[in-house]
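#onboarding

Welcome to the new folks! Below is a worked example of what a typical request in this channel looks like: someone posts a single protein sequence, and someone else replies with the predicted structure as tokens. Don't worry about understanding the tokens yet, we'll cover that in week two.

Example request:
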Amino acid sequence: IRAADPQVRIFLGGLAYDYFITDNGPFYQGFLADVLRAGGAPYFDYVNFHYYPQNIHWPTFPDKINEIRGILTAAKVSKPIVCTETGLTTSTNPDYRSPGMAANGPEQQARWLVQVHTQGFANGLQMMTWFPIQDFHTDIPGYQIFTEAGLLRLDGSPKPAYAAYQTLVHELGDAPVGRIISSPPAALEVYEFSRPDGRLWIA
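Example response:
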């Protein structure tokens, strides 16, 4: 890839880094550490992971970011971190409810979209991607939790999270974080970002 385009930026394949083999899941917890130990660091530019709040291992998004950053630090590797998959379903199915969070629904999805993006950028992520853009149907086992996680409904009409996303982008833009005033596990999270016209607080 680099021979074809020396300016290319390569992402490591998105790490689930949850639901491990030790939990009777499919994912091997030591994968990233093994890649780095094997000398893989020069072959990618960004560490890429996924996050969903239903996971039992990471009570908060910053917890997972810090865990992955710790693996890099232990290997004496410095790489920017991105999250290419996060989301929250609007389904009211109790099986999809996240620990410590209000029941799923359109309003909760909109609130959480702002929260997870704010936490991510305040903790140094360079990019985030919501999955999926629109609700969908599937018969693939295990994918039902994602079918109502879109920002748009099946008919293309926007959910409240769509407007929340637009507002977040408009207000936050690429403003750098000024400081984390209060973060989890505090009951009230407050983040300050520096905009050209002043300070932006997201609480």
